[in-house]
């Protein structure tokens, strides 16, 4: 998938470019900056000194030297004051410039830490919101694998309120599902007995259709329905697969095979890209053999976002990551 979240040491990422939360001055800072310089070796600091001062909100690029990445992009980020001094705009500029530098060098993959959320004191939720916006916009216009590399889930909470609301939604619907399973057994048995009586008293009706004819009358499959929805909504294929966090090659294989069966994560991502309501989502993914139930945390999170009219797959993936669920896309 073009956007992915990984729990790793960023210096171990095998990508074309690693983004460094760099010191503005040509020296080795703390945290990510220190770890990157340590693994890259002294040549990185020498190259960094040739660049000199990096203004907050901008970035510069050097070779990766001893790292597994070909390039290191040194992003200088703002220090958080109170949010009223252009901090978010400067941070967004650092992301945009880092991505632009990677694109100029022909990079196919790039790994970011959550910039500015450490020593520069940027509130993690605000820092993450800026990152999501930057990645979402960039991926709508470019083909690149973006990794957000974190050490733990606590750094990826998009919104305390959102996480709380999703958790409450899951709890409430899990209760509903649980209560449904506790219906008195005698009622279920009674329903079965009545059904047997009714069936015994009803004359058998012979179908006029053969099995082959039944099969020929089947509904449109997932691919056919997907293409029909794309056309109906007046969208371009590229818009849909990019919104869905799906690579172009994977999408092409899917739409060129009328019998293709996507994964559940891919099917749902495509329904979100089309901004389908809950009923339409259930219909589309049902054509690939999937359902949304009250007994799955993953399903309930998807339902929550659809019911609240929120369809950004990157944001939804962060919520899924928070609850230890599989991410959307392919």
What does this entry look like structurally?
The protein is an alpha/beta fold. 50% of the residues lie in helices and 9% in strands. It has 14 helices and six strands. It has helices at 32-40, 42-51, 87-104, 124-139, 160-181, 185-201, 211-216, 222-232, 237-243, 248-255, 264-273, 278-286, 297-307, 313-322, and strands spanning 3-7, 17-21, 59-63, 71-75, 109-112, 145-150. The protein has a six-stranded mixed β-sheet with strand order 1-6-5-2-4-3, with helices on both faces. Helix 3 (87-104) packs parallel to helix 4, helix 5 packs across helix 13 and helix 11 packs across helix 12 (278-286). The radius of gyration is 25 Å and the shape is elongated. The relative contact order is 0.11.
Short recap of the structure:
With 330 residues, the protein is of the alpha/beta class. Helices cover 50% and strands 9% of the residues.
Features:
6 strands, 50% helix, 9% strand, elongated, alpha/beta, 330 residues, 14 helices
User: What is the makeup of the main sheet?
Assistant: 6 strands, mixed
- Label the overall shape: elongated
Task: Indicate the mean pLDDT.
Answer: 87
How many H/I helical runs?
14
- Give me the count of strands: 6
**What is the terminal-to-terminal distance?**
5 Å
Helical content (DSSP H or I, runs of 4+):
40-55%
């Amino acid at each position: 998938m073009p956007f992915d979240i990984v729990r790793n040491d960023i210096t171990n990422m095998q990508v074309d470019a690693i983004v460094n939360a760099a010191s503005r001055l040509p020296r080795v800072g703390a945290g990510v900056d220190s770890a990157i310089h340590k693994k890259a070796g002294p040549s990185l600091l020498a190259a960094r000194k040739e660049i000199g001062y990096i203004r907050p909100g901008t970035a510069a690029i050097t070779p990766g030297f001893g790292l597994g990445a070909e390039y290191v992009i040194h992003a200088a980020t703002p220090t958080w004051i109170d949010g009223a001094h252009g901090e978010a705009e400067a941070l967004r500029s650092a992301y945009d410039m880092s991505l632009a530098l990677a694109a100029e060098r022909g990079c196919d993959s790039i790994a970011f830490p959550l910039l500015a959320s450490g020593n520069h004191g940027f509130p993690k939720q605000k820092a993450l919101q800026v990152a999501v916006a930057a990645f979402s916009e960039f991926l709508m216009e470019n083909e690149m694998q973006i990794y957000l590399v974190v050490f733990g889930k606590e750094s990826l909470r998009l919104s305390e309120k959102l996480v709380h609301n999703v958790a409450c939604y899951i709890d409430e619907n899990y209760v509903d599902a649980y209560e449904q399973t506790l219906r008195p057994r005698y009622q279920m048995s009674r329903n079965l007995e009545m059904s047997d009586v009714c069936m015994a008293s009803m004359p058998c009706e012979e179908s006029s259709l053969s099995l082959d004819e039944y099969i020929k009358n089947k509904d449109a499959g997932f691919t056919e329905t997907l293409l029909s929805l794309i056309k109906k909504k007046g969208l371009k294929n590229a818009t849909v697969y990019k919104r869905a966090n799906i690579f172009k090659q994977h999408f092409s294989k899917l739409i060129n095979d009328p019998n293709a069966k996507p994964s559940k994560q891919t099917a749902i991502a495509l329904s979100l890209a089309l901004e389908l309501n809950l009923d339409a989502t259930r219909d589309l993914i049902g054509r690939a053999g999937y359902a949304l139930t009250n007994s799955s945390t993953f399903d309930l999170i998807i339902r929550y976002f659809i019911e609240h009219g929120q369809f950004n797959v990157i944001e939804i993936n962060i919520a899924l990551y928070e609850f230890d669920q599989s991410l959307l896309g392919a």
